[in-house]
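Can't paste images in this forum, so I'm doing it all in text. The chain is below; anyone willing to post the predicted structure tokens underneath?
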Amino acid sequence: MQSQVFNKVIGTSAFEKLSRNDASQTSQVSDTSQVGGVSQAGKDTITKMCAKTQEAYTDALQSCIICNSCRYCEGLCAVFPAMEKKREFNLNDIDYLANLCHQCSECFYDCQYAPPHEFNVSIPQQFATIRQESYKKYAFLRPLSVAFEKNALISSIVLLVLIFLGFCLASAFEPSASVAASGGGGEVASVVKKGDFFAVIPYGYMVGIFMIVGCFSFVALAIGFVRFAKAIELKQPPLDVIIQSIKDTLSLRYLGGHKSEGCTYPNALRSNARRIYHHLTAYGFLFCFIATNLGAIWMHFLGLNAPYDITQAPKIFGLVGGIMLCVGTLGLLFIKLEADDEIKDSQSVGMDYVLIVILFLSSFSGLCLMVSKQSLLLAYMLYFHLSTVLAFFVMMPYSKFVHIFYRFIALLKYNTDEYEMGHK
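Text version of the structure:
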């Protein structure tokens, strides 16, 4: 018991020092008053955080201090060499290290101080919590991030229903669309036979709503990335470092484990399953994105309207991407459900599950549309598919999807630091 109290005091004291360092950097020592050994600016930084967030940063910082003393795991991934470059940490350093972590969890199973040891060193779980906090911290329109995190399932269902109703209402003002949706008359047979989506939903509404949401998502993502890059003090990297960081990101280098034997996730047994499912999900999404853009190019510039034949590029990319996305998301959902509780953050898994399910539903409903264009349920299937896709883009800046880009920025900083050390 004495050890537990002793270590908690060290963690809390270190957190106050961490907050003081962070506040002094942001305030440029504008407030020099001291309260209990901590500057007033540092106290303000602590006060703005909820108790749960304070505890998350305190635990993560304590683990970093212990890891820096031990250094047993320094050859496992990029996190520990990056950590060892720091003798003191500020809040943004912890954010950087957390986003550099790929949660392979090898350090947890190797660590002699992992729970149930009183030191409670649990880097995968603690950094998962910090990553979620960093997504909120740097997000554009932060209240949306908080809303999705606290009520992930309810927020997503409400969003889906509202978007679905929006498509229904828009179609009510399109004569052929309303006929197709009602399933009556000979006109519906013509619409269904052609598989013409724009006869179901007005062209202007479909294009307009996706342009608005797409631009919003892009701006929100860009603002978040810029804020994160500035916070961790990313320097201008040389071209070689940029190329290396892109390779590390696209190959998921640090999910390969020791000698590419796989990472210890969802449990202590090594497996490449998580890396494979991530690749299927990421590249499946990319293929679907390419298919959508190809369809737009073919329609507006080549005069070739949907539906496309199975031998045409938009259909090929969409089919392959949809299958990859379905398999990848189902695999990720399964291993996340099977993962040891000690290596995942219980507070953020709800939003993780919602994101995975939304991605699966968007890809699965898209595949269903391909094979059932002549169904009398075409209109409602299209409403549902587009609703899942649109909901995903609304959620994207506030979900774990952003970790792809945050991790790239973290890898860019790590590789830049390594490059500078090697050229001194």
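Strands lie at 34-35, 38-39. The chain is about 70% helix and 0% strand.
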